[in-house]
Each structure stands twice: as structure tokens, then as C-alpha cells.
């Protein structure tokens, strides 16, 4: 970064609840605040449900405008309030860079920054857009208003290409997510030894209990090989609306003692350290933060080759395995191979820790800083 004084950065996101983009926002905010930058994090939420902790020097602004819109007109009114409130924050904070996280936040920022030429507004996509279609209104707004952003970042080349085809974004840059190592710890602290008996092997997966994550497919795959590997358990860390349905599926399979739903934990790093194998069964991903984190902790990994992310994280037959997306039989076969071959897991583990460098916070933040510097030079030349 070529700026002679600490950068003034504002990050705008809906909330800081326990999600992937939220973790990215907190990690980047803390990293740059610890470098001496003036960092402000703005959320639509009131902050009461924050999961990730921010460094003491990060300024926190809670707009308390995260409300459900019952109809179209109320939606317009609510979003107008969000735009006006963010515009006021931008005028007061005077950041060099304002970075939004996720599609709707990108659009709100694109409008809120109009008339503020000193503020360089950036958007960031955190999912492969066609996998999570927006409403017709938000789709139209994204298509046109992304042109008001100085740049939009994508996590993968596939997402970049989609954005270039389907929006008017003038500058789309691929910047993957970081996988910080070691991970910070915060409440709730749930220790692996309280859930998994000593000397048993653990296949671990982490994520929200939603359809996207494909835990139903993973349970089916594990059920196919459980009898062949009686010393293995499958542990699912996370919470979400499908918890009861997954518990019922586990019970029906007769695997309540072998497949454990842990719930949400703030010390996921301890779970990576205790795991013998990491499994990602997602139907789709924007990137796959937990997959990169698992590798950084030296855990051999197995994943569906879904769009997008896993193929950019796992190096097939080097630090893990990729199997055809959604193919339960292929997943079961790969599980059988990995669970039954300790030498293979050890070989993959040695290579996996290279992810600490490949996805280090220093490397990824450096990519952002290069982009910030380029955009600040362009903006300075306009004056």
C-alpha cells in the first residue's frame, strides 16, 4: 500500500452474526486496525446478535435498520432509510475506501456513495450469484448500479465471469478469502472431548444447518460406510433451521451414537485440531472458508466439486479429494478410502498446511491493499 498515512476504511455489512462473509469482515477489519488504519464497521443490525469480536480500535456503528419488509412499498421505504443513514455515516466518517459485503449491501452502498466523490465505493460478492438468485428488483438494481462502484470483488474466476456477463460492473477482481491461522476463540466454547470419546476418530464438517451445506447427503454417505469403520464418528458443528430434520435423519439411520450435532461453537479451531478428516458436502459454495481453515490446521479434506470454491482450495490427490458434486455414492467411496488409509491421511496432512501461506491473512489483505492503492491513484488523477 502506497498511502503515506493510515488508510481510513469503512466496511458495511448487514450484521456480524456467525456467517462466512461476517467472519471475513471481522478478520479484515481487525487486521487493518492492528496495522494502525482507521477502521469503521457499519451494520444494519443493532449489534445485539454479534458473534465476531472486533478489535478495540475499530469504530462500530449500528444503524438498527435490519427489519423485514412486509410488502413492496415498505421494502422501498426501509431501503431508502438504509441508504440515507449510510450516506450520513459516510459523510461523517469520510473514509478513503468504503467496502460493502454481499450483494444487497453492495447496492445500498452504491447508492449511498453518490455525491461523495472522495469516497471510493467497492462491492464484494461472497457467493456464486446464480446459485442464490435475487428478486427481480434486486437483480435489476445489481445489474445497473454495480457500475457506480469503483470495483467489485469475486471469490473465484467463475463468479467474476458471471458478474462481467450479467452486470455493468466496470472492474471485477478476484480476491479469495483468507484462512487465518490460528483462529481466535470466543464464546460459546465447546470442547471436542466433551462430545467425542477418547481414541475414536473424527470426520468433521462445519457450517450452517441449511440445504446449501448438503449435510443430508453427507449423513447418507456416512451411513453407507459406518459399519466398515466402527471407530469413526461424524461430527457436524453449526446451527440452523434444519437441525431437527437432520437429527431425525440420523435417528432413522440408527446412527445417533455415531453422528453428533454439536451446535454453534466459538472455538472451531479446537475442533479442526481434534479432527482426523474434514468433509465438505455443500451443494454450492461462494468459496468454502471452513475448507481452507481445515487445511490450514493440517486436516486432510474431502469435498464435493461444487460451484464454486472447493476446486480452488483442495489440490486433488495432494492434500485432499474432490468428488462429483451431489454424488452420494462417490462421496461414500471417497470416505471409505480416506477413513481406511491412515498413511494417505498423513500424506495429505503434511501438504495441507501449505494453506496457511496460500490463504494467509497477510497475503489476502495484501491483494486488497493493491486494489485500494490502484483505485486511490485513479481517483486522485480525476481531481
Task: Outline the structure in words.
The model has no long low-confidence stretch (mean pLDDT 95). This protein has 14 helices and 13 strands. Helix 2 (72-93) crosses helix 3 (103-112), helix 3 packs across helix 4 (136-145) and helix 6 packs across helix 11 (328-339). The chain has helices at residues 20-34, 72-93, 103-112, 136-145, 157-166, 215-225, 243-252, 268-274, 289-296, 310-313, 328-339, 342-352, 355-358, 361-382, and strands at residues 8-13, 38-43, 59-62, 97-100, 120-124, 151-154, 172-174, 201-206, 232-237, 259-263, 277-280, 301-304, 320-323. Helix 10 (310-313) links the parallel strand 12 and strand 13 (320-323). With 383 residues, it is α/β, with parallel strands linked by helices. It has two domains: 8-178 and 360-382, Rossmann fold, CATH 3.40.50; 192-358, Rossmann fold (3-Layer(aba) Sandwich). Strands 3-2-1-4-5-6-7 form a seven-stranded parallel β-sheet, sandwiched between helices. Strands 10-9-8-11-12-13 form a six-stranded parallel β-sheet, with helices on both faces.
Amino acid at each position: 500500500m502506497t498511502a503515506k498515512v493510515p488508510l481510513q476504511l469503512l466496511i458495511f455489512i448487514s450484521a456480524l452474526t456467525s456467517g462466512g462473509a461476517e467472519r471475513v469482515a471481522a478478520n479484515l477489519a481487525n487486521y487493518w486496525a492492528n496495522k494502525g488504519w482507521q477502521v469503521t464497521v457499519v451494520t444494519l443490525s443493532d449489534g445485539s446478535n454479534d458473534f465476531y469480536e472486533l478489535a478495540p480500535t475499530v469504530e462500530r456503528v449500528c444503524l438498527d435498520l435490519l427489519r423485514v419488509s412486509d410488502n413492496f412499498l415498505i421494502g422501498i421505504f426501509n431501503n431508502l432509510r438504509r441508504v440515507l443513514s449510510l450516506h450520513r455515516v459516510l459523510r461523517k466518517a469520510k473514509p478513503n475506501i468504503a467496502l460493502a459485503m454481499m450483494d444487497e449491501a453492495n447496492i445500498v452502498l452504491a447508492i449511498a456513495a453518490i455525491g461523495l466523490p472522495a469516497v471510493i465505493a467497492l462491492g464484494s460478492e461472497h457467493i456464486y450469484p446464480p446459485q442464490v438468485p435475487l428478486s427481480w428488483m434486486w437483480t435489476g438494481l445489481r445489474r445497473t448500479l454495480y457500475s457506480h462502484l469503483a470495483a467489485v470483488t469475486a471469490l473465484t474466476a467463475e463468479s467474476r465471469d458471471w458478474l462481467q456477463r450479467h452486470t455493468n460492473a466496470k472492474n471485477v477482481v478476484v480476491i479469495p478469502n483468507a484462512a487465518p491461522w490460528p483462529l481466535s476463540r470466543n464464546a460459546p466454547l465447546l470442547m471436542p472431548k466433551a462430545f467425542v470419546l477418547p481414541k475414536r476418530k473424527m470426520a468433521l464438517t462445519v457450517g450452517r444447518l441449511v440445504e446449501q451445506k448438503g449435510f443430508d447427503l453427507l449423513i447418507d454417505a456416512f451411513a453407507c460406510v459406518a459399519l466398515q469403520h466402527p471407530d469413526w464418528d461424524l461430527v457436524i458443528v453449526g446451527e440452523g433451521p434444519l437441525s431437527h430434520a437432520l437429527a431425525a435423519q440420523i435417528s432413522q439411520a440408527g446412527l445417533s451414537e455415531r453422528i453428533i450435532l454439536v451446535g454453534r461453537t466459538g472455538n472451531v479451531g479446537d475442533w479442526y485440531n481434534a479432527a482426523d478428516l474434514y468433509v465438505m458436502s455443500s451443494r454450492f459454495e461462494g468459496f468454502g472458508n471452513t475448507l481452507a481453515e481445515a487445511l490450514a490446521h493440517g486436516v486432510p479434506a474431502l469435498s464435493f466439486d461444487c460451484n464454486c470454491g472447493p476446486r480452488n482450495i483442495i489440490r486433488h490427490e495432494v492434500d485432499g479429494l474432490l468428488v462429483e458434486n451431489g454424488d452420494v455414492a462417490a462421496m461414500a467411496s471417497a470416505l471409505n478410502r480416506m477413513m481406511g488409509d491412515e498413511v494417505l491421511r498423513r500424506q495429505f496432512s503434511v501438504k495441507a498446511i501449505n494453506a496457511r501461506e496460500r490463504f494467509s491473512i497477510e497475503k489476502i489483505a495484501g491483494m486488497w491493499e493493491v486494489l485500494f492503492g490502484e483505485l486511490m491513484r485513479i481517483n486522485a488523477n480525476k481531481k
